[in-house]
Design a protein that fits this description.
9-stranded mixed beta sheet, globular, 5-stranded mixed beta sheet, alpha/beta, UDP-N-acetylmuramoyl-L-alanine:D-glutamate ligase, about 325 residues
Length: about 325
């Protein structure tokens, strides 16, 4: 096995987030699923955009957000995701490359446009996401650079992208390439509705030993296992995965790796401004430690620090020197 060129190669949605503050009443008036993520078509996205107040546009996408956090921590990363040849596609490509992340997926010439996620943020920092996947749902298997996949120590996959058929095929191909190259597979479940639709696939991959590192939150854990009790859910999965990471929001996180269990509290935050990207950055902090072979508890602490930083401001990606922050918080 050759030494990998990249620490993490990720496949995910290439999306630009459009974030706007709103009152709780707005969520009710628009009939949105508060705190959740719903898929919308182009027309629905346009209508929600019209209903938004002044907004901030920032590149997003779950796996891309995680890579941005990883890159800020000195991790070598590459991204595979589909944008269109339009303004949002140019914004996304610029942002991810400027973060030091390799990104060479050719832009799609035809419709639909680059994906966007319209995020309504209530005064408590809760985000309600409405995603138009756009070009991202047409990521073809031909876009999978097999040499790039084999050059990554960890292949990180985003559950959101499992929903459309074409990128699902691309991700399956990438898994085969990574396994053949002896690389690890990390998977984030992303959202309970994705598990509702594709849970059989995910459970089959777990049973077959395809997934090496699984990230879930407590809701996703319950949906995946059918166990309402958090500890019962952990018990149902922990023996089937080399590494299981389960987050509990303000109540911290648990990781179980090869029989070892670690648990940390959430990092204190002066004010929760926007929870967009909290799970993505937790994964970034954890993986940045895991890639270096750090102890399990340290990896969790890094995840908690990264999540706390991102929820203290608008937007899903770090806005400070993350390595300096880790040094300050963890020494």
């Amino acid at each position: 096995m050759t030494d990998p060129k990249f620490d993490v190669v990720a496949i995910g949605n290439a999306i630009v987030d459009i974030l706007a503050p709103c009152e709780n009443e707005t969520i009710e008036q628009l009939g949105l699923a508060r705190g959740g993520m719903s898929l919308v078509d182009a027309g629905g996205a346009d209508k929600l955009y019209e209903a938004m107040g002044p907004a901030t546009e920032k590149s997003g996408g779950s796996a891309a957000n995680t890579l941005a956090g990883l890159a800020s921590l000195g991790t070598k990363c590459a991204f595979i995701g589909q944008v269109a040849d339009d303004q949002f596609g140019q914004v996304f490509a610029h942002d991810i490359r400027s973060a030091g992340i390799a990104f060479d997926t050719p832009a799609r010439e035809e419709e639909p446009p680059t994906g966007r996620c319209l995020i309504f943020v209530t005064p408590d920092g809760e985000r309600t996401m409405n995603t138009f996947l756009g070009a991202g749902q047409f990521l073809p298997a031909a876009a999978i650079d097999e040499k790039l996949i084999a050059d990554g120590a960890i292949l990180y996959l985003e559950g959101y992208l499992w929903d459309p058929e074409e990128p699902r095929k691309a991700m399956r191909r990438a898994i085969d390439v990574a396994r053949s190259a002896g690389r690890k597979i990390a998977f984030t479940a992303s959202e309970s509705f994705v598990i509702d639709r594709h849970g059989d696939d995910f459970r089959s991959m777990i049973e077959d030993g395809v997934i090496d590192i699984l990230f879930v939150n407590e809701s996703e854990l319950a949906t995946l296992t059918g166990k309402d009790d958090f500890e019962d859910g952990l018990a149902a999965l922990s023996g089937k995965l080399p590494v299981l990471v389960a987050t509990k929001g303000e109540h911290g996180a648990v990781a179980i790796a090869n029989g070892e269990r670690a648990e940390v509290a959430a990092e204190p935050v002066a004010k929760v401004v926007d929870t967009t990207g909290a799970g993505d950055q937790f994964a970034a902090g954890f993986l940045s430690g895991h890639a270096k072979g750090l102890p399990l508890e340290t990896c969790l602490k890094r995840g908690a620090v990264a999540a706390a930083e991102v929820i203290s401001h608008i937007g899903p990606r770090p806005e400070v020197d993350m390595q300096a922050l880790m040094d300050e918080k963890l020494g």
